[in-house]
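S1.2 Input.
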Amino acid sequence: MGELTSEAFRQYPVGGIVYMENHILSEEQLTAMNKSFRELGQETLGVSPFLAVDEEGGTVTRIAGNQTFPVENVGNMENVGASRDSDQAYRVGQTLGAYLKGYGFNMDFAPVADVLVNSENTVVKERAFGSDPNLVASMVEAEVRGLKDEKIEAVLKHFPGHGATAEDSHNGYAYAQRSLEELRETELVPFQAGIDAGADFVMVGHICFPLIEGGQVPASLSPWAVTELLKGEMGFEGVAVTDAMNMGAIADNYSSAEAAVQAIQAGIDMILMPADFEAAYNGVLQAVNSQEISQERLHDALRRILTVKLKMQNR
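S1.3 Output.
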């Protein structure tokens, strides 16, 4: 870790770090960087940060896709799902978890819990286990167990389901023309299975549900999606994290401050990758000081985050 990174963390001691391809150079560099973040987190906050990466297998691999790393690419989840063998999904979780743990990570933005409702969907087509909600549920449950057995936190994504969209939320608004009943029968089934298997994180996507909410409200900013559905109806007690906030669906339509504040008000506990970090940070700070974000909401988010961190620290 260089001086600039160390100074930035001391100024803004964030709850987690996410790595992209350009941060991952070699086994030695990656392991040393994670060790530095853990030590600095302990020194600054008394708890280590979440150290996370998108390592799904197949086309989404920040580490296995790097030729300097001697690790197995477990392949696309589409093929694992096609086997109909949940033991394969468990081995995926175990394999990913083992090498991530070896490099000092404690969290993986996987598994993809989306059900491929729209066969034309290009966002999660190869990344999803399939189009049968019960099959996907059994695969998700098994992968979560595999990751957790290696002491890696699993993150279910992209709630409430990206499988019915035609658009890509990286580029702008994405719409799922689904009723609440359809969601309950299909998309929510694997998320519930993953939660029941012990996943402590759910990533909420930037997907609009016009048949349920009307208009253009991404789920990541929606009290209905996060507080009512995920935390209320589905009984999720863990950490709700946004999908990356620099994606087009958010960054093209909201300021970083507006988006961060609305997400936390909606029930989100952690903000991932705002387009303008300082603007998002100051926006949240101002909203807390003006009581636009209540102390109760803040304490709920903090309680959820620290519950997971202390559990990780004590195992």
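S1.4 Remarks. The mean pLDDT is 95.
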